[in-house]
Fold:
Amino acid sequence: MNAKAVRPWVSRLVRLGYFAKGVIYTLMGVLAIRVGVGMGGARLSDPSGVLMRIVQQPFGLILLTTLGIGIVAYAVYYIVEAVADLRHKGGGWRGWGDRSL
Structure:
């Protein structure tokens, strides 16, 4: 079962999580490239540096709050999915092992 089959609002939150994850990784990549070509410090290319860079931008706090909500929604959905066995991996030790991957 995927997020769309659960509830429309859950699907939106999970998509927001994917978006947030993509934004963070994209910014890390862009900042790493800048470090590589000598246009920025190494601190900018780690996740906390990216987040600090976001908060310094116009509307940065709003964007950072949105990214935070998305990442939390993403994590909560996948924890619930694993515990509730939404993909029907089975019970017992083998099922729990399969779901933990």
Notes: The mean pLDDT is 75.
